[in-house]
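Entry:
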Amino acid sequence: MEHPLTMMYGPFSGWFLLLILGGVSGSFFLYQVVKATRLVMKGSSDDRFDNWGARITEVITGWLGQKKVLKDRIAGGIHVLMFWGFLMLSTDMFDLATANWFSHNVLPNIVRGPWNLVVETGYTLALVGCVAALIRRVIFTPEVHTANIQQFVCAFST
């Protein structure tokens, strides 16, 4: 089976369409970054280059370790499963976007097995996290969420 990027879609190749979609989405992303940066720059100045050790530790524990979301053990645990699952999946998405060029030409043969294990683990974690989130949202709905839905329904039913 031919890879979608090497196929022709009318007069356009898959690579051309990928470049167009990448350019449009990249432009939208850049627009959002500029917009957020302008908003942040309106605030007071802050020395962001002090205490590198504490800042790097905060990135590792706060972003990679998901320290803040784990305060709620159930919702936080579900969030961590999805976060790490999709983070691991991003490597596979990169490989798919390059028509498997990355895995066939860049990765050494000895690394392919562990890399595929990471990708498959990511798929599993993301699936388990998404199913758990769906079950929590639909079946074991938290009281706060139920109260918000009831308020929403009452507001629009009158």
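The chain has two domains: 1-41, 69-158.
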